[in-house]
Amino acid sequence: MNTEITPLLEIDWLQWLPLLIPIFSLHVLLIGITLFDWSNRKKQIALPYVWLFVILSMQLIGPILYLIVGRRSIRHDYHS
Amino acid sequence: MSQFTALVRVELTEAAKEYKYVWLTIFFVLLGLTQPLINLYMDLILQQMGGSIGVILDPDKPAPTANEVFLSTISGQFNQIGLIILLISFMGLIATDRQNGMQDFILTRPVSIHCYVSAKLIAHWFISMFSLGFGILTSYGCTVYLFGAFPMTKLISFSVLYSLWILYLISLVIVISMYVRHQVLIAISAIGISFLLLVLKNLDPVFSDGFPSSILNVAEHQLVRSSVVSYRSIFSCLLFTFLNLMWASKKLKN
C-alpha cells in the first residue's frame, strides 16, 4: 500500500475543484438526510449508536444500509 | 381500475415517507457522475497515486468515444453495484406486507390478487425508473460534456429497453418473496439469480435468446453496434415477466 502523502500535496486542487464539488455535496446531502432521520428515530430503533457509527464511517454504503435496514429495525420494549 | 391506482398510490407514498426517491436518486447520480470522470482522468490518477514506478496506460491507445464511455457506466456501475442496491431496496416488497399483516388486510377486501401483484410491480418500477432516469441523464450530460456528443435517440431507445430488464427484476423479486420469508435471503437469492442471468446472456448467441437478460444485448446494440443480435429477446423478457406475475398470483391464491 502506498502511504506516501507527498503526491497529495502536489496535486493542483484548483483544477479538480469543479469536478469534486458536485460529488462532495451529494455525499454531504445523503449523509445529512440520513442523520436527520436518525435523530428523529433515535429513541425507537435498535442499537442507535452502532448505526450512527455505520452512517459516518462507511460513505455511500453506510447511509443506504441505514435507510433500508436500520430504520426498520424497531427496538422491542422488553429489552430495555 | 380505481383499486389498482389506489394500491399504486399507497406504494408511492410509502416510498416517499422512506425518502426512497431522494437517496436512490443521489446514489445513481453519484454512480453516473464518477464513472466518466474516472475514465477521463485514469492517466492522471495513476500518475499521481501510482508511485514512481507505477503502472501507466498505453499512451497510443485510441481515445474512447462518448457512447463507449456511457456503455461502461451502465454495464460497469449501474448493472453491478447499482443492481445490488436496487435489489436490496426491493427486498421488503411483499415480505413487510406479510409481516405486519397488511397483506391479509388487503386480500380479505374485494381486491383481486392480480391487481395487488401488478400494482406492486408497476409502483416499484416507477420508483426505480425515476431514480435510474436521473442517474442516466446525469451520466449522459457528463459524458457529452467530457467526451463529445452522441445522439439522444440512442439514449432513449437504450433506456426503454433497459427499463424492461428492471421490470423483469422486480417480477423476479415478487416470485422469490412468495417462497422465501426472510428479507435478507430474498435479497441474496435475487442478486444471485440476476448475476447468473447476466453471465448466461453472453454464453451462446442462439441459445441465450431464451434468457430474459439477453434484452441487455439488444440494449447495448443501440449504443455500440454489434454483429449478432436478435430482437426475439425483447419478447422473451416480456414473456418471462408475465409468467412470473402469473406464477406469483397463483401461489398467493393457495
UniProtKB/TrEMBL annotation, chain A:
Keyword Transmembrane helix: yes
Protein name as catalogued: Cardiolipin synthase N-terminal domain-containing protein
Membrane topology value: Multi-pass membrane protein
Origin species: Exiguobacterium sibiricum (strain DSM 17290 / CCUG 55495 / CIP 109462 / JCM 13490 / 255-15)
All copies of domain Cardiolipin synthase N-terminal, residue ranges: 33-71
Transmembrane segment boundaries: 16-36, 48-69
Entry GO terms, CC: plasma membrane
Entries under InterPro entries matching the protein: CLS_N
From TrEMBL, chain B:
Record key words, sorted: Membrane, Transmembrane, Transmembrane helix
Transmembrane segments: 21-42, 78-96, 117-150, 156-177, 184-203, 229-248
Domain of life: Bacteria
Protein name: ABC-2 type transport system permease protein
